[in-house]
Amino acid sequence: MARLRLTGVLLVGGASERFGSPKALARLGGCTLAEIGWDALAFCDERIAVGKEADGLELPFPAIDDGADVRAPIAGVVAGLRAAAHDLSVVLPVDVPRITAAALTALAENCADAAVPQTGPLPAAYRKSAIPALEAALAAGRLSLREAIEGLEVVEVDIDPALLANVNTQDDLARI
Predict the structure, then answer these.
(1) Mean per-residue pLDDT, 13-19
(2) In percent, how much of the chain has pLDDT > 90?
(3) Does residue 89 contact residue 122 with C-beta atoms inside 8 Å?
């Protein structure tokens, strides 16, 4: 297979209501979750971080504003895909710190309009062909990524569940 040209999109936004503070700045093993996610995307030809400029997160890399009035991953995915230089992007939420480049590559290699793990729509690989459906859902206030991609050609990729461990609370972070 020819080498894929990929954009890595790191979602650093989110209300972090259950966590109690910005997850992007939470520390695990001496690094912030944002730094861990950014490093996980280092294999990509291009990396973009997407969040809310109003959050004022002090990150060691630039982040673009998702431009949406809502706080939902779909807004970050749409903004990241729009900004991406490549047709194919791997999208990683900042709260999945155990994911590997190999797992993200597996998603990209199997991507139709989208490729998702067995647990749902993030982390994932998305092509620009998914933008119209995602934009339509966002404009209609349908914020569920899972529902927004229902009409697309989506491939489910089996990823080791340990790599998909999600940090939603301080307890989750302590367990990881």
Answers:
(1) 75
(2) 86
(3) no
